Amino acid sequence: MSDETLQQFNESVRNELENHLIPFWHERVIDAKHGGFIGQMSNEGKIDPQAPKGLILNARLLWTFSALYRFNQDPHSLSLAQRAYDYLEDHFWDRDHGGTFWQVDFQGHALDDTKKIYGQAFYVYALAEYYQTLEDTSALQRAKQMFDLIEAHSRDQTYDGYIEVCNRDWSAADDLRLSEKDMDEKKSMNNHLHVLEAYTNLYRIWPGPQLRERLRQLIDIFEQHIADPASGHLFHFFNEAWEPMSANYTFGHDIEASWLLCEAAEVLDDQNAMSQAQGLARRLALMTLNEGLDEDGGLCYEGEAGQVTDSNREWWPQAESVVGFINAYESSGDPSFLKAAQKAWAFIGKYFIDRHHGDWFWRIDPTGRPDPDEPKVSQWKGPYHSVRACLETIGRLTRIE
Fold it and tell me: Is the pTM of this model over 0.90?
């Protein structure tokens, strides 16, 4: 790929971030009446003022606005980061038992007070980013407290890894599902992926020996238990003893894990961990490229036994594919990965960016038609994947150039 093509690629991503994504999330999601941010917006931009507010969206908003301020020093990003931090502390933090509620109502009262570890991890991830933005010691102390709670109540002392869900008081929960579509099993790839991500960001600001050990163990868990050596993909669900309970895989998680594993090893500054992570990452990226990516650059959603089982495309796997393929190019030097990243980005520009109502569509079918029933903003739809993909791509392409 020529220097001119790389520069055009980089400029296209920067333009999308600065002129489309940032204005949408800066201007459209503030809840001026009830505080914090809205809980739901339709595909066409209609806000539901009484929609519940989820931990995942609010933690990801805190991370996004903090990361954006570090990127461009825009005071509005800083103001929104502080707004997100204050709302999470005022309404999501459990003052009786510690940790954060999964969901509150539109007025900020707890609706689901369970401690889903996936959500606790995202709060750690966001707090670490917020601390890097403001060096607010209260955010660092809260992140340390969250780490201690996760380690004390979720970590499996017998088989290692982390149990999915605890009750409000951190006792064992009966229902271990993150969402209705998930299996009721004690462990999942998705939970461990985002604990890994959270601990990576926390290690940047608090490189203690216990955290280092846990982060190193998480890389081992992916190689020893989560990655399937036969298929080259990641298993989804496991019982307590790490026996796989599912056979399907999602290409988006495979490619996302590929670069998050490398990031964790880089932060550890451990050559053995780096070799281990890069080996896993190249296999995951190669299988995603060979099995999940269409010629037009669209990434299919799900597969099993070497076959695509869901050919729809969603915004978040598409975003992660851009970063994951660039990461694979950086570690291998194989130009096919860089070409795949460029094709994936072109696919986003052609099909996902909503030029009329703003932000990106949630899902498109194999013909390129957006799903009008999926929201622009919800518990699961926020700026984290799209904005992070832009920030990572700009930084990585600048290094490559």
Answer: yes
